[in-house]
Amino acid sequence: MDRKIKKKKWTLKRILTWGGAGLFLLFILYSFVFADGGSRLNVEREKVNIATVREGEFREFIPVDGSVLPIKTIRLDAIEGGVVERKYYEGGILVDKGDTILKLSNNDLLQNFVREETQAFILVNNLENTKLSLKRNQFDLKRSLIELDYQIDQAKDAYERGKELYKEKIISEQEYLNLKREFDRLTDSREIQIESTRFDSLNARLQIAQAEATLQRTRDNLEMIKKNLDNLYIKAPISGRLSTVNAEVGESISTGQNIGQIDDLNGFKVRASIDEHYIARIYEGLKGTFDFAGGTYELEIAKIYPEVANGLFAVDMAFTDTIPDGIRRGQTLQIRLQLSENIRAVQIPRGSFYQTTGGNWIFVVTEGDGMAVRRNIRLGRQNPRYYEVLEGLEPGEKVVVSSYEGYADKDKLIFK
């Protein structure tokens, strides 16, 4: 008896046919649902921050911290070394110009002063003796010349009378020649006496000049040592606040050693540290502002220190107008350092999105506010509150500025 063979309902061919049709339908459905492209992510609207793109005044500035310092600080260094004999003031108080802060003692310096002073006295005495000797020689010369002139007059008279008598043959030739020789001798003696006295006088004046020069040098040395003795008294060069005095009674202080400093309280400056990234854009005259005690005050860069340490360089800033009441040395100020003038610009608030996008793209909220779409943008300058938008956004549009963690590979955010 023939058996009826039951035909299989799901053959391999049929399975493949229906499977292919199903895949095709799924593809059509996927294409329909995601026809507008990109991957999506459902997010809760309350968990994102949305900001509006605006156009307005934009000023590029960077926040820097500045420390208040006195306008001038004078170091107190020991000009002469010595042992601290007395300490007049402790640090932290106000002093007036000329106040003695420390007194040092230096026996070697004192002995040098005594030796130089004694040498000066000796030189003064020698100089006075030389001058007296010159005066005495001048008086002796006058006395000798008077005596010689008297003798010459007598010899001249005798010589002239003898000359007449010799002509009349009253005296012999020998007597006449003796009278003539005596007159010539006295005349020559007078010339020699004058020349000798002139030489002695010149020599004495030279000795006086040398002695006076030596005495002047000795007096200069004495004056220098006297100033060095005065430098053993360390005094305040200006009025101000004395810092800690780094010396105690009995301590040995070497020449040039710093023992403290005085702050000039007639004004203040602010020293700020700036990231080296901005070094090419910082110049003297650049302005900054800070808030203090309910008011806003302006500073101006007065000096730039070119040394870079740990990625930072320093500037000194001066108050351009009023110094705030109550400001103190060492106080820290938060300064807004202005890097550009005010300009009109499209801008968006700063946000955590920048850490993910680097400012190259952003999620822009659609008109219905139901989702946000990824869009490429280009940002320019920035300040602590806003980014300048150069391309990709228009004023009035809304953007997501909160963190994009987990959004980096998404094209759309669907708000729930």
Automatic annotation (TrEMBL):
<comment type="similarity">
    <text>Belongs to the membrane fusion protein (MFP) (TC 8.A.1) family.</text>
</comment>
<dbReference type="InterPro" id="IPR050465">
    <property type="entry name" value="UPF0194_transport"/>
</dbReference>
<dbReference type="InterPro" id="IPR006143">
    <property type="entry name" value="RND_pump_MFP"/>
</dbReference>
<dbReference type="GO" id="GO:0016020">
    <property type="term" value="C:membrane"/>
</dbReference>
<protein>
    <submittedName>
        <fullName>HlyD family secretion protein</fullName>
    </submittedName>
</protein>
<dbReference type="GO" id="GO:0022857">
    <property type="term" value="F:transmembrane transporter activity"/>
</dbReference>
<feature type="coiled-coil region">
    <location>
        <begin position="201"/>
        <end position="235"/>
    </location>
</feature>
<keyword id="KW-0175">Coiled coil</keyword>
<dbReference type="GO" id="GO:0030313">
    <property type="term" value="C:cell envelope"/>
</dbReference>
